[in-house]
Amino acid sequence: MRWGLLPSWVKDPKTFALLINARGESVVDKPAFRAAMKRRRCLIPADGFYEWKAVAGRKQPYYVRAKSGAPFAFAGLWETWTGPNGEELETAAIVTTAANRTLAAIHDRMPVIVPPDAFDLWLDCKNVEAETAAALMTPPYRLVLSLVKDREALTLIAHDVREFRPDTPGVTGPVPVSLQFAEIWQTLTGKAFRQSMAERIYKLEKVRPS
């Protein structure tokens, strides 16, 4: 499964933009997501997510999680793309909505978080129409979220990157967190920002008690 939805009608994946998020307001009608919204809805479990806020010319990382510490589920869509030689590629995207009161100070968007009592409704593509399921695409006012920033957020990022790819061919022992972080965010941020964040994580790793 690849993150970044690829509609079945795309001829060449290399020429199609990566769709990592689907805006809930238009997901029922937008051609790229319309079929998946009708027939291929899914849940993406998580225990938190990262968001970034521009502060004085730099980006401040925040880790967003349920205040209770419990995991939750994002509304997701998936597709199977079939190539000219019969090869198949399964892809997925996260549905987003307007930020709730907690997140609004950081960013204007957030993932759609499906409450447990609505899991069946969201997943039942056979009996529940897309328009009905779309009613779930609202900010999660019932879920109390908490924000973590600065040192702890950077440490969490470092930990998650290490868990994602603990080693590299030809390298003995764990890959330095700073290198992993810079590599994964290469396509998302500018070079100066990548270097700055990698250096900050490296410093935290050095001062963290063993």
Q: Which series of helices and strands comes N to C? A: EEHEEEEEEHHEHHH
What's the architecture of the largest domain, going by CATH?
Alpha-Beta Complex
Helix content: 25-40%
What distance separates the N and C termini?
A: 36 Å
The number of helices is 6
Poorly predicted regions are 161-194, 200-210
Number of strands: 9
Largest beta-sheet characterization: 6 strands, mixed
Q: How much strand?
A: 25-35%
Q: Which fold name is given in CATH as the topology of the largest domain?
A: hypothetical protein yedk fold
**What's the name of the CATH homologous superfamily of the largest domain?**
SOS response associated peptidase-like
Q: Can you tell me the CATH class of the largest domain?
A: Alpha Beta
Number of domains: 2
CA-based shape: globular
Structural class: alpha+beta
Outline the fold blueprint.
Blueprint: E1 2-3, E2 21-23, H1 31-39, E3 41-46, E4 49-55, E5 58-66, E6 72-82, E7 88-98, E8 109-111, H2 119-123, H3 130-133, E9 145-149, H4 150-164, H5 177-184, H6 191-207
Helix pairs in contact: 4-5, 4-6, 5-6
